Structure formats: structure tokens, C-alpha cells
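Quiz preparation item.
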């Protein structure tokens, strides 16, 4: 039997997120977007308010202090937050997806050490970051061939009781804001990339760790992205997540959450654009009638709505399958992000067209929504690469 009804808890979650988005995020979204220095734009207080509501703990099991939610819950939260601001939603998306990666792969002792203080935080200071992408390319880390010289460059050398890490990451979300970071590093230089990456977690004050450049971005300006630098950074054996050499495998598993989270975030951007364009088209008059009455505009709005509804169905179907433990379902979870990000780009550009000249001016958020949508097919695995992996399953 197919049931598209949200549970009572899920409806409550949607209400809480929607109220937070409308009352807390929306009133400040435009002013944060305009802050010129990216190092000053991160809305710490706002993120803290979300932490007070426990948003960061959504995907952490209850035994460690989390809400114990699933991916359908994640899709609901991400869409609602992103309607108000993609950057704020993005910070939570990264933190939640990383917490899920940790919960799924860490030992009980690591969960106590990492997830319990994380869940207890009510200030927003315990955001999470994960560095995989390197200056040599985000796609490089997924190199599937046999030649050991390609793939991740950051190297974790085995030392007594732990590892010494050297290398650099770039574009990391929550850089400079996270209390705990994860990083992918090769633990064997002579083995192929796919089987020689390992994942380590370390606190932001670990000696040998420093921040690189904080990026100035086109959109998502409320989120922080930057470099992570490792200069003989020592971590202990207990900081290894899962087994040595399984890093790429673990990262690909987290794409169940990432696809759902980032896809819903993209859908939230699209929904904001559609709702704005619909309202405008009903009010704006030319030749004595509202522009929605012209077929070219009315049809565009219908196409926008259909694309959003289709995207939500696909995402929630993938999320539901994952929540049921059906990880080998025949729909690749990355489809959620790939499809919804393409919807977000198209819908935001169409919304701008509906607003005519005003769509291009800063009077309306249309141009911000286009800027926010543009990155969605790029981050968290470029769509081209995700499609490549999908094509291998056909
Ligand atoms: C806002 C933002 C936030 C981000 N957050 C994080 C984060 O938190 N952690 C993190 O690790 N990374 C993060 N990234 C990095 C992001 O995941 C990468 O930008 C993305 O994976 C692409 O890597 P790249 O930019 O190095 O492009 P490249 O890998 O250089 O690719 C360039 C182009 O070539 C295409 N291409 C390359 N190789 C192939 C191939 N084999 N098959 C088909 N097409 C190919 C790509 O699709 C892309 O279009 C973030 C990026 C952005 C913009």
C-alpha cells in the first residue's frame, strides 16, 4: 500500500521548521546576503537558535541525545529552512549529514565522545564540517581507477598510537565555525584511491590544524566555506572513523542523506521562487489584466509547480526507502539531489522572467534565489560525476 501522508510528528516538525524559517530566518536573510566580508556573514545567533530547537540533532539516535529522525524528516526540515534562506539551511544540512555519517560508522565510545557533547550544545558552536575536496579537485577523491598517483593527496602517515596528517582541503562547509571536523586522507600511497582513503575526526583546536581561505561566494552567503590545512596534525587511532581504507565507501553511503538533504534544500529554493512568482503574476497587470492570465506566464507557473511536486515525490520516495533500510533500492539516492538541483536552476530563472525587469533588480529576492540555486548542481558531488556513478548501475 502506498501512503503519502506525513505522520503527526512529521507535520509538527514541518510546522516548527516553517515557523522558524518565517519568524527567525526570513526577516534577516536579505541583510545577511548583503554582508560583503564572508568572514562576518555567518549568522552565529541564528544558528544558535536552531540548535536550541535541536535541529542539529535531527539524525542522531536518541541514545546519544538526538531526535532519532530519519531521512523523510531531513527532507522536511531542509525544504522548509531553504525556503527562507539556502545558506542557513546549508549549514544545518552539512552538520546533520555529517552527524549521520558519524552515528552510522563510529564505535559506541566515539559516539559518546563526539555526538553526546554535540547534541548537548545549544549555542550553535558545535557545528560539524567535513573536508574531502582538495585543490586538485573534488572529483579526484572519487577516482575509481587503479593508478595510486590519482585520487586524494592528503596523507595520513601511521605513527605510534595514531597518524600524522599533511595536506589541504578546500571549500569545506562550516569552515571556521565547526567544533569538530572530519577529513579524508590516504593511509596507503601505493594502493588505489578507492581502497586507501580513511576518515578521521578531530577537534578544531588540534595542533597542526589551521584554517585556509574563507571563500567569497555568489550565493549561500550565510554559510561559511573555506580551506582546512594539516601540517603534521596528529590524531590518535581512536579518531579513525570505521575501518582504515573504507573512507570512499563511507562517504558514498552518506550520499543517501546528502542526496535527500541537498535535494530538499534545492527544492526549498525553487519553492520560494515559485511562490514569489505566483504572487507577483496575480498582482502585476499589463493591458488591463493580471499577467498570470497570459498563457505563456500561466503555463510557466504550472511547469514550475509540477517540477517541484515531482522533485518532492522522488526525494521522499528515496528518503522513505532509506528509512526502511532498503539501501539497495533500485533508485540511486543521488537522483534526489541531481534532479532537484536541475529543477532549482530552471525554476529560479523562470521566476526571474515572470518578474520581468524587477526580477533582475534587488527589490525582489528573485536574483538572490538564482544565485542560491546556481551552486546546487555543483556541490556535494558535481551532477556530472553523480550521473556517471548512476550510469554504472543501469
Ligand atoms: C558552496 C560549496 C560548498 C562545498 N562544501 C564542501 C564540503 O563541505 N566538503 C567538501 O569536501 N567539499 C565541498 N565542496 C566541494 C564540492 O563538492 C566540489 O566543488 C565538487 O565536488 C566539484 O569539485 P571541483 O569543484 O573540484 O570540480 P572538478 O572536480 O575540478 O570538476 C570540474 C568539472 O568537471 C567535471 N568532471 C570532473 N571529473 C569528471 C568525471 N570523472 N566525470 C564527469 N565529469 C567530471 C565536474 O562535474 C565539473 O563540472 C563545496 C563546494 C561548494 C561550491
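Solution:
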Amino acid at each position: 500500500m502506498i501512503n503519502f501522508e506525513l505522520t503527526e510528528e512529521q507535520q509538527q516538525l514541518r510546522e516548527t521548521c516553517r515557523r522558524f524559517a518565517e519568524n527567525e530566518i526570513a526577516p534577516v536573510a536579505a541583510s545577511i546576503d548583503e554582508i560583503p566580508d564572508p568572514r562576518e556573514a555567518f549568522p552565529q545567533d541564528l544558528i544558535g537558535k536552531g540548535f536550541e530547537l535541536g535541529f542539529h540533532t535531527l539524525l542522531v539516535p536518541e541514545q546519544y541525545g538526538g531526535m532519532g529522525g530519519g531521512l523523510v524528516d531531513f527532507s522536511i526540515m531542509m525544504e522548509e529552512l531553504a525556503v527562507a534562506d539556502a545558506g542557513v539551511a546549508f549549514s544545518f544540512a552539512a552538520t546533520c549529514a555529517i552527524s549521520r555519517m558519524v552515528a552510522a560508522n563510529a564505535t559506541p565510545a566515539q559516539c559518546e565522545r563526539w555526538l553526546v557533547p554535540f547534541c548537548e550544545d545549544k549555542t550553535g558552536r558545535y557545528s560539524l564540517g567535513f573536508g574531502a575536496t582538495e585543490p586538485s579537485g573534488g572529483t579526484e577523491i572519487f577516482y575509481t581507477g587503479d593508478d595510486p598517483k590519482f585520487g586524494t593527496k592528503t596523507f595520513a602517515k601511521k605513527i605510534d598510537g595514531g597518524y600524522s596528517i599533511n595536506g589541504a582541503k578546500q571549500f569545506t562547509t562550516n569552515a571556521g565555525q565547526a567544533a569538530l571536523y572530519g577529513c579524508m586522507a590516504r593511509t596507503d600511497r601505493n594502493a588505489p584511491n578507492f581502497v586507501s582513503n580513511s576518515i578521521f575526526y578531530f577537534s578544531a583546536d588540534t595542533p597542526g590544524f589551521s584554517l585556509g581561505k574563507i571563500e567569497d561566494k555568489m550565493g549561500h552567503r550565510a554559510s561559511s566555506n573555506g580551506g582546512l590545512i594539516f601540517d603534521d596534525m596528529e590524531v590518535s587511532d581512536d579518531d579513525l572513523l570505521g575501518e582504515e581504507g573504507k573512507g570512499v565507501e563511507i562517504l558514498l553511503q552518506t550520499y543517501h542523506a546528502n542526496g535527500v538533504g541537498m535535494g530538499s534544500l534545492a527544492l526549498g529554493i525553487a519553492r520560494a521562487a515559485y511562490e514569489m512568482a505566483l504572487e507577483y503574476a496575480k498582482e502585476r497587470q499589463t493591458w488591463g489584466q493580471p499577467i498570470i492570465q497570459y498563457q505563456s506566464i500561466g503555463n510557466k507557473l504550472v511547469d514550475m509547480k509540477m517540477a517541484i511536486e515531482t522533485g518532492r515525490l522522488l526525494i521522499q520516495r528515496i528518503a522513505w526507502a532509506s528509512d526502511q533500510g532498503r539501501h539497495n533500492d533500485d533508485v540511486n539516492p543521488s537522483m534526489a539531489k541531481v534532479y532537484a538541483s536541475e529543477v532549482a536552476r530552471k525554476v529560479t530563472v523562470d521566476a526571474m522572467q515572470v518578474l520581468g525587469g524587477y526580477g533582475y533588480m534587488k527589490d525582489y529576492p528573485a536574483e538572490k534565489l538564482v544565485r542560491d540555486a546556481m551552486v546546487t548542481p555543483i556541490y556535494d558531488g558535481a551532477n556530472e560525476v553523480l550521473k556517471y556513478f548512476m550510469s554504472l548501475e543501469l
